[in-house]
Amino acid sequence: MIAIASILALPTMALAQEDAPTVVAQREAPPTVASAGQAGTNQDIIVTGSRITSTGFNAPTPTTMIGTEQIEANAQPNIFTTIAQLPSLQGSTGSTVNTFSTSSGQQGLSSFSLRGLGPIRTLTLLDGQRVVGANVTGIPDVSLFPQLLIKQVDVVNGGASASYGSDAVGGVVNFITDTRFEGFKGNIQGGVSTYGDNEQYLVQLAAGKSFLDGRLRAVVSAEYGDEAGVGGGDFGIGLAGGRDWFKQTTLINRNALNDGSPQYLLLDNAQPYNYTKYGLITAGPLQGIAFDQAGNPFQFQYGSNGTPSGNASGAVNGCYPGFCIGGDLSGNVDAGRSLQSSIKRLNTYGRLGFEFAPDNEIYGTVNIAQVKTNNQPVGGMNRPNLTIECSNPFVPASVQQACATAGITNFAYGTSNAALGNTQVYTDRRQYRFVAGAKGRVPVAGSDWTYDAYYQHGTNYTDVDVTNIMLSRRFNQAIQAVTLNGAIVCADPVARANGCVPLNILGGAPPSAAALSYIMPENGPYQRTRQTQDVVSLNFSGSPFDLWAGPLSVAFGAEYRHEYYKVTADPYGAGVSDLSPNNSEYPADPALLTDGNNWYAGNYKNGQGAYSVKEAFVEIDLPLFDSSSVGRANINAAARVTDYSTSGTVWTWKVGGTWDLPIEGLRLRGVASRDVRAPNLSELFAAPVTTTLPNFFDPFRNVNVLAIQNQIGNTDLTPEIARNTTFGVALANAPWLPGVSLSVDYYKINLTDVISSLGAGDIVNLCFREILPDACNAFNLNNQNGPNFINVQAFNLASIKTEGIDIEASYVWQRPLGLDGTLTLRALATHIRKFVTDNGLFGSVPLDSAGANLGNTPDWKWLAIQTYATDTFSIYVQERWFSDGVLGKQYVECQPGSCPESTNNNPTIDNNFMPGAFYMDIGGTYNLTPAITAYAKVDNLFDRDPARSPYFANPALYDVVGRMYRAGVRFKF
């Protein structure tokens, strides 16, 4: 394969930030890959992995650079997708992730995750500055960035908290805009999938102009993107657009631990036997009677040749617990999930800079953007545990007669509620970001010093609205009907007095408008969030004097940051105490709970919180030696002290260095650091959720008690602490190997005090066993002054350990085989040796998820790119691949007759294999004129389907959309 050839024959991976070539086919002259400050100019180079801004500086932290050319060649409607394909990024979100979610608020949120540590541990910057979060976890949405003006993206693969502060545990992704762009350029693009859906449109425009002899510069951009997404399919196993890869694969628990056969079975076409599309009697003597769309009863076809047991357990003879295999699959709800959320982006950006003195500028930027998304979480609203009275007038006469014959007055019932339609979730994120700053260069004591000072204010509004979803308690009232004075009405007189309208759920007849209005009012679940971020930052960098091996470079600065959020939700979900008949929008209803949680899903809560951060840092670059005999080496060190208003003071640091060996072009580098992630607004001030636990076991008194579970934030949380270690070797600009760049880096991260949530039982037991003393303050099960309660909170309890290897290389060949053009080869790979999570709970065993393809950390992941370009056209080929893996390393795979005893920590399973995947993308450009370029691109050329998964699919690794076609025109004048 082309990709394999590029890796084995030509070591071609882009290097660390100061070593990486921009991926561009240059024909004028062979490219040089120089260290920062050594590229043939005297200009200072800003490197994202450091605050040092100085000629000749070499940062030790590996960083991948993605240039404009690669961004354009990948031809994605959202730059997020191009960056997220890098192997070191594992677990990033995007429009294909969280599509099954109703309440997370993260649908369509484009956020990066380095090293598989999650978006909350990856710091995403715009021009080296923080961006207000688009979610209460504090992570920004890259879809809101001004994408056409991005000239470079630096991905720092290593801890950078000493340089940039909290969240930079996995690393940093820094988007660098072209602040000096002049002219007018644009991009118009369209796309569609091979299945005729996911239509895409993108229009981007940017302009730049200088005035006053270049002292005044203005840059503006605007863009609109529309991705229709891929909606849910029908019930059963039919996906949207005729996609046929979904098989309702399920991990079935046999509940047998030591009979010689595996406890878990991975099987296709699994059919739950406690509901169907239009209703099923699930237990008792009438078990197995189902209803068609017209409401007619028929005998349900169980898979596995199953027959109903006819008893109160609801078991089916010949089937597995909860599932049969095959049979009538029409009621399965998973096919209703959106494969990709629809997303609409509107982005405007402007920057005005004035050079008030040579190399000194004051500037202001405005970024106003909006992103709207829509997804369908699942098909219908599944209710498997209902009870229907035989006397209900909606029950067919034949079934009523069967009830009488069997001597029963009611029966257990389950339905997908297909007749009620499908829930839709709409999000609307609006960002208003303003920056005012000054930066430049001033002479101090005979040397030049750079400064960078700015104030940033950002506000993000996020609206989440859910439509077509039931109020569960009203639904429960509406389905219980009686005949009164010749009319069918709700059985409960109190419910009737409060507007209850009877609902027939035996079959698929469309409900009346009045019945729908009662159980699904127009004012559905909603959440309104406002987040603000204010940052004041001042940084200096310079070289105060020369030492024996070169100048000593220093950077120092201070920053203040304030974060705030407030979230307001609808009364049905959040709970209110003053519902009254006079409230036309939310009238009082005894059927509803005044403390909220009335919706089938989407029970958002009210909350607010704020914290502030004060910090200062210093960083130095100390040259050690510089000679032809031993080479050139430096030490880079930094320290930062940070004071959080919620958790106090914490120190971060890094110590690293580079050594340019006497062998020209060869460099050794390494860095060790202490990094932090402070608890975010959601973890500190989570909107409370209250649940009643009627029979909660109190181990202190050995009795069951009634307790109230309060899910709340924990203001006593402290920062997570990470130890990062990275070391490796880099090759660039070697005269004995022209055009080749190569780096290999080992990394290790040990993250402790990881913030993780605990259940009510865990909290009480950890206190009872004296394992976690802090948990004892979170409950009172013998409360003499009020109800017993348990505050379910997050604690600094877990840990994560991961280590692996990054390989990155590139090769540029001018006039290959005498052809008029340039061949550029590039490849990047990450090998995750281990990714061990310890939840810190009593009796649990640390779990290594490296190679578990149900997650986002495969053993190997690589990206290879080949580009051939001339003055007239270019050809682009890209391969994406990750290795075969397992469902989970905790499983013991075995076959019937040979299985050991299955345990909680090591359960047995019949099939623990989950394949990797290989995707090829191809594209090309043609210059219609010197200013106009047409291009086309095909992603997932072979239309590779995702692997079977017990959880529908894994969009974090696999392509769930299929082959995509894109074409467009770029222009620049």
- For the secondary structure, the number of strands is 48
Query: Any low-confidence stretches, pLDDT <50, length ≥5?
Result: 1-44
The helix/strand class is: mainly beta
Outline, from the CA principal axes? globular
Main sheet attributes: strand count, strand direction, barrel closure = 22 strands, antiparallel, barrel
Classify the helix fraction into a percent range.
Answer: under 10%
The Cα radius of gyration reads 31 Å
Mean pLDDT: 90
- The amount of beta strand, in percent, is 35-45%
Q: Count the helices. How many?
A: 11
- The N- and C-terminal alpha carbons lie at a distance of 39 Å
Main location: membrane
InterPro entries: Beta-barrel_TonB (IPR000531), Beta-barrel_TonB_sf (IPR036942), Plug_dom (IPR012910), Plug_dom_sf (IPR037066), TonB-dep_rcpt-like (IPR039426)
Protein name: Outer membrane receptor protein involved in Fe transport
Keywords: Cell outer membrane, Membrane, Receptor, Signal, TonB box, Transmembrane, Transmembrane beta strand, Transport
Name the descriptors:
Plug_dom; 973 residues; single chain; 45% strand; mainly beta; Beta-barrel_TonB; Outer membrane receptor protein involved in Fe transport; 4-stranded mixed beta sheet; receptor
